[in-house]
Fold this sequence. Notes:
This is ABC transporter permease. By secondary structure, this protein is an all-alpha fold.
Amino acid sequence: xxxxxxxxxxxxxxxxxxxxxxxxxxxxxxxxxxxxxxxxxxxxxxxxxxxxxxxxxxxxxxxxxxxxxxxxxxxxxxxxxxxxxxxxxxxxxxxxxxxxxxxxxxxxxxxxxxxxxxxxxxxxxxxxxxxxxxxxxxxxxxxxxxxxxxxxxxxxxxxxxxxxxxxxxxxxxxxxxxxxxxxxxxxxxxxxxxxxxxxxxxxxxxxxxxxxxxxxxxxxxxxxxxxxxxxxxxxxxxxxxxxxxxxxxxxxxxxxxxxxxxxxxxxxxxxxxxxxxxxxxxxxxxxxxxxxxxxxxxxxxxxxxxxxxxxxxxxx
Length: 316
């Protein structure tokens, strides 16, 4: 098992290295001169040249890439070109906000999807199971930002139960933190729960048709008892697959939802940096998002080994 984990870790390291090269190369081919944008289009060539030297843009690309990588590892990312604000503290603070949003949304999605998807599978021939399946199809078709707008319209504007946006750190006011987190987390969770519930339904249905489950029921176990004791572990492997993908989708989807709810997370930081042409900041944020997705995939691969013993020995 340790050998397999090591192999997957080496793949992760190689993927991160390739991703860093691609992200850096993509930013280099974007049109526009950051130094001229920072000074204004009517600035003199001498001023632009001095600022390019200050930014280090006149150095060889390989040196710029090495300095950027070193900054990622040491969190010494310098300052923004236009605002002169330090990048690293903003990145850490914004990532913490996004982590709260994505983490709570994923927990809510699981709390909804696991029981609902299992019930949809067990009751797939009954009216309630068919109704839940149809409802999940509708949920899959609704974008998270649209769900957020609907939630704001009803629960914030009409009922006035929750604020329509903004952010309060949990250490500052836990109650207000939860109130402001509720609607964006629910808007992300509802969409992801609909997707996850359908995969849970499919995985549980496959397990329900297995011979070992029929044997367990023949020994006197009720359907839900047999499923809980002998089926859910086998159904977990395909569910973990989609869970990793959906967690990555949540991370990317939070970019738009943060904008809808005026949340100062990583997504808002990215969009603001794009608007102000802070290319080094954009480059760093994109790399952080890519690294998060790759690390999630690595953790999912490792979790396979814990769930399914056959993968540890290579048996099929």
